[in-house]
């Protein structure tokens, strides 16, 4: 069978196995990162070697998927943290202020925030040698966020081996960077994140001041599509990506382009459709409760009813599921459609096999896959749908 890699961890391993002994490839990969100012790393020409640290445990600061310790000329280092997601940034990021969301610290912008907090604690003046602990003012500022509603005290790392290794990593380090590795289209950057008003990392200094505007140029993006451009087409990464992560561009099994979905007012359908609508609404809410660990007091997914469709808004504030009525020849039917990157990341395209569909206008347009249901719905059909729905909604 050979070596088979899977999921976020498998994709990261595949990249490292591909580039670890090839400085030219390492430079190409790092050169594909787009920072918040729209530029790449300025020190790549001075890069001499790189040590990769895969998924170390930083305790209360979380576990970075990958750290690249970049040794440059004149004994200087630059350190790059990577957080990987098999979905787009939009489909993982959630607002960090407001009500608590189960699993919030596994979301991409929360993970980037935690790694920045770790570095701030690491370089903090007056910190004790044997531990890494953030300052009280910074901790109090972060305590206002939903990320810390269950952690209202300064975060700390005490593992002596990890602390010692991090102190060595810090020595002669010129700068630290934080990169989101996502399934977005090429060219993704934090300028586009801001322009789309997507949830950002939240950063405070040791005095509790918001410093995103001054720190954002140390945050960057690298997409799997960017990696495929610079890594060998027959290499382990590309082959792993084909198995784990379909192309981020909207496609269908037949290669057709996305179809624009039009809606019809619910009032034009029979009373039986109203019952099916209610059943599917409850199925989606129940699946969300299971996927998010929702105790019914948390608004992890919200239902919005419109004249011609129902929309379910996810933790990130964007629509991830819709229920849409339509007529199939002379009969009535109903579609459940889900954001395409979630469907593909959950490997549910064979079940949600209708599409792709384009919904929305202009910059608000999004691509969905779906499944059609006719009346009446059987119990077996509902149970199968719920299972796939839980799988899709569990993707973060």
Structural class, from secondary structure content?
alpha+beta
Taken from the alpha-carbon principal axes, the silhouette is: globular
* Spatial order of the strands forming the largest sheet: 9-14-15-13-12-11-10
Output mean pLDDT.
88
Radius of gyration from the alpha-carbon trace, in angstroms: 23 Å
- The DSSP helix count reads 13
Q: How would you spell out the order of helices and strands?
A: HHEEEEHHEHEHEHHEHHEHEEEEHEEH
Share of helix, binned: 25-40%
Strand segment count: 15
Beta fraction of the residues?
A: 15-25%
Distance between the termini: 30 Å
Largest sheet: 7 strands, mixed
Low-confidence stretches: 250-255
Total discrete domains: 2
């Amino acid at each position: 069978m050979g070596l088979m890699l899977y999921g976020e961890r498998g994709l990261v391993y595949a990249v490292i196995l591909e580039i670890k002994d090839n400085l030219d490839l390492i430079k190409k990969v790092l050169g594909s990162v787009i920072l918040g100012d729209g530029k790449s790393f300025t020190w790549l020409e001075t890069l001499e070697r790189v040590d990769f640290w895969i998924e170390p445990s930083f305790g209360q600061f979380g576990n970075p998927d990958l750290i690249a310790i970049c040794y440059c000329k004149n004994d200087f280092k630059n350190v790059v943290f990577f957080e990987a997601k098999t979905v787009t940034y939009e489909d993982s990021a959630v607002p960090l202020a407001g009500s608590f969301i189960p699993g919030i610290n596994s979301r991409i912008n929360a993970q980037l925030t935690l790694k920045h907090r770790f570095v701030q604690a690491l370089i903090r003046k007056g910190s004790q040698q044997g531990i890494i602990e953030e300052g009280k003012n910074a901790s109090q500022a972060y305590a206002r966020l939903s990320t810390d509603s269950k952690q209202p005290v300064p975060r700390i790392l005490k593992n002596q081996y990890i602390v010692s290794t991090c102190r060595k990593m810090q020595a002669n380090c010129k700068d630290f960077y934080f990169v989101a590795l996502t399934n977005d289209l090429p060219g993704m950057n934090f300028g586009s994140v801001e322009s789309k008003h997507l949830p950002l990392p939240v950063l405070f200094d040791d005095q509790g001041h918001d410093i995103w505007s001054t720190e954002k140029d140390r945050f960057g993006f690298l997409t799997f599509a960017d990696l495929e451009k610079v890594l060998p087409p027959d290499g382990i990464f590309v082959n792993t990506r084909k198995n784990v992560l379909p192309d981020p561009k909207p496609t269908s099994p037949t290669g057709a382009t996305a179809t624009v979905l039009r809606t019809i007012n619910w009032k034009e359908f029979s009373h039986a459709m109203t019952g099916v609508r209610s059943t599917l609404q409850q199925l989606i809410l129940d699946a969300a409760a299971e996927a998010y660990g929702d105790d019914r007091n948390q608004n992890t997914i919200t239902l919005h009813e419109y004249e011609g469709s129902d929309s379910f808004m996810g933790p990130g504030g964007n629509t991830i599921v819709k229920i849409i009525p339509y007529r199939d020849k002379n009969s009535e039917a109903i579609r459940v459609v889900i954001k395409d990157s979630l469907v593909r990341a959950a490997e549910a395209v064979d079940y949600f096999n209708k599409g792709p569909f384009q919904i929305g206008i202009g910059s608000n347009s999004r691509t969905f896959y779906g499944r059609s249901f006719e009346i009446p719905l059987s119990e077996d059909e509902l149970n199968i749908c719920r299972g796939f729905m839980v799988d899709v909604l569990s993707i973060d």
